[in-house]
Amino acid sequence: MMNTSEILEQLNCIFRKVLKNDSLVLTETTTAADVDGWDSLTNMQLITEIEKRFVLRFTFREIVKLKNVGDLCSVILSKLKQA
Amino acid sequence: MNRQNDLITDILLASVKYADRPSMVIEETTYTYAGLFEKVWSICACIRSVKPNVIGIMAENTVETYASVLAVLFAGKTYVILHPSYPDSRNLQIIRQAGIEVLLHDGSVPVGFARSEGVVCISVSGEAIPVSAEPYYMTHAETDAYIIFTSGSTGEPKGVPISRSNLNAFYRAYSQLGWKLDETDRMLQMFELTFDVSVVSFLYPLTLGACVYTVSSGGLKYLNVLDIMERHSLTFAAVAPSVLRLSRPYFNEISLPALKYLVVTAEASDVNIISEFRRCIPNASVVNLYGPTEATIYCTAYSIPYHDCKHHNGMVAIGRPFHGMEIVITDKEGKPLPSGQTGELWVGGAQVMAGYWKNSQKSAECLVATADGKVYYRTGDLCYQDADGDIFYCGRKDTQVKVQGFRIELAEIEYRVKQYYDNKTNAVVIPLYEEDGHCNLHLVLERPSGDTAALEQFLQNELPPYMLPRRIHFMNSFPLNASSKTDRKKIMQLI
After folding, report:
1. Which of B27, B190, B215, B220 would best serve as a mutation to test chain A binding (most A beta carbons within 10 A)?
2. Considering just the CA atoms, what is the radius of gyration of chain A in Å?
3. Mapping DSSP to helix (H, G, I), strand (E, B) and coil, where does residue B212 land?
4. CA B259 – CA B236 distance, rounded (Å)
5. Nearest CA in chain A to B225
């Protein structure tokens, strides 16, 4: 079972690839407003990549409630535990 | 003055009649009409004595920003929106062009760039100074209500001044569309204040005594829009079709039974997405509204039926002209075409601006007076009309595109790129459309491949975020067409 820091590492790779930014470093407090290019459109691509990588599916309500990367890690962790 | 003749008067009447009702919900804080107007009168008292007529407002999703817009209108002056997401250089271009000497801001974003230009920056944050409500200062109908700056092909944004007379003509026509709305309605305002659909999304509900729900501009806006619509059971929403497109995978989880009206606007609407979204809005009428900024927000309407929606290549029809507006579809020589034939859409009537801000050359290109003395605005949109009189949008006759509702002249981006290379490198911007209609901008440079970090930084410093290309490509030489011009179609195939 992955822990939060391992999930964060995987997310970092996905974000770097989708946003084409090799120097991006995510932390649990990072929000969309902190990252250049993380907007409505790229968020869809990020969600799709994350769902593929972790083999899970987010609901609309889960996505809406995400306030930062830490929230994203928590949802992924909880879904992996349920799987 | 009769109701539905003067928009500002009607807002004033509603503010008194519905003083204790909610006027706005911003970032989950509710402001009553009395609370909102306390701020409005306080700002109004502050600016009424200043000499300049054109007042800048730094747009933020705060009650101070919205109160500033109302205060400028009530003071009989003209507002121009600057945006914190714009590079300073672009905000300065607008300040210089519009001749802004006074800027209202809420104190949350830096305005040093404006101060260094000699602009007096007034912070309107904090407690309102108690001022007794003053009667609305009636101003000349031809005084501009606002000036919106849009993308311009020469690298300078174009100013579109909309007079109070234009705005009231729009207000009368819009009110006649048959909305069944009143003070109990909850209505969405999702648009940036730099974009004119925000004017109706914000001001029209206030004429009814209804409540406006705004959306933060930062972060993941489309999610915020649907979240607010659902949590607050909104009854009216005007949205850009991108909101629907981006939330498509979640339609089976979204339920908006309280919604009475869904307006789709700002860009061409996909007939299939509207059809699929119907399941989320079982009680709503859906209307497509179209209009260039130059003809005051919207000037045609199409009520989208459940079945047999009229469309052209999947793009929903834009319908018929507003009351008081006339349209003509013309050939390249400006001669009217019969129904069924595609040509440029011209719109005329009381909603059409008098001319671009301090740009008589551009005004002469775009405004045409016909032999009978009517003035039409040449939209640049290619359209045709069917036998019923409904208009269909088919595309642009130039290189203007819309990205998430924002109007962009590709030539403006190309101008900036060439400027970066001291005009020694040719550049074209190619709009590539995805299957769902989303437009991605690709910049193609006529030069060997190389590092583009410095160019990207330069563009970020010069252009608003929505104008930045998604990808950059290189070509050793651009293909030419039969007229020896750069062949954009061929380049599109090659990238």
Report:
1. B220
2. 12
3. strand
4. 6
5. A64
A40 contacts B242? CB cut-off 8 A: yes
Q: Which comes out higher in pLDDT, residue B495 or B293? A: B293
Q: Are B137 and B74 in contact (CB under 8 A)?
A: yes
What percent of chain B stands above pLDDT 90? 73
Q: B168 by DSSP, 3-state: which?
A: helix
Across the range A46-74, mean pLDDT stands at 92
> Given its phi and psi angles, is residue B339 left (phi above 0), alpha (psi -120 to 50 degrees) or beta?
beta
B324, with CB counted inside 10 A (0-12, 13-18, 19+), is middle
Domains (range + CATH), chain A: 4-82 (1.10.1200.10)
pLDDT in tens, B240-283: 988 898 888 899 999 999 999 999 998 889 899 999 999 999 99
The predicted pLDDT at position A1 comes to 77
Reported confidence tier of residue B1, pLDDT bands at 50, 70, 90:
very low
- Closest residue in chain A to residue B230, using alpha carbons only: A61
Percent of chain B with pLDDT over 70: 96
State yes or no: pLDDT of B23 exceeds 60.
Answer: yes
**Structure tokens given for B197:** 């659909």
- Residue A50: name the closest of A68, A73, A23 by CA: A73
Give the residue among B77, B76, B78, B79 at the shortest CA–CA distance from B138. B76
Q: Where are the beta strands (DSSP E) in A1-83?
A: none
B207 within 8 A of B73, measured Cβ to Cβ: no
Mean pLDDT of the region A63-72: 91
What mean pLDDT value characterizes chain B? 92
Compute the distance between CA of residue B100 and CA of residue B310 in angstroms, rounded to an integer: 45
Distances (CA, A) of B347 to A38, B141, B265, B367, B379: 38, 21, 18, 10, 7
**Nearest CA to CA, how far is B222 from chain A (Å)?**
6
Contacts of B27 in chain A (CB under 8 A): none
Closest-CA residue of chain B to A18: B470
User: What distance in Å separates the CA atoms of residue B400 and residue B152, rounded to the nearest whole number?
Assistant: 10
- Show residues of chain A in contact with B221, CB under 8 Å: 39-40
* C-alpha distances out from residue B210 to B8, B19, B23, Å: 15, 11, 6
* ipTM given for this complex: 0.85
CB contact under 8 A, B219 and A31: yes
- What does the pLDDT average to over B30-37? 97
Q: How far, in Å, CA of B256 to CA of B230, rounded?
A: 6
Inter-chain CB pairs, A–B, below 8 Å: 39
Query: Of B466 and B3, which is predicted with more confidence?
Result: B466
3-state secondary structure of B324: coil
Mark yes or no for CB contact B223/A31 under 8 Å: no
Q: How far is it, in rounded angstroms, from Cα B74 to Cα B68?
A: 10
Is the per-residue pLDDT at B3 higher than 60? no
- Considering only alpha carbons, which residue of chain A is nearest residue B472? A20
Residue B393, token pair as written in the block: 């949008």
Other C-beta atoms closer than 10 Å to the C-beta of B477 total: 8
Contact assessment for residue B97 and residue B156, using Cβ atoms and an 8 Å cutoff: yes
User: For the whole model, what pTM was predicted?
Assistant: 0.89
Set of chain B residues whose Cβ sits within 8 Å of the Cβ of A56: none
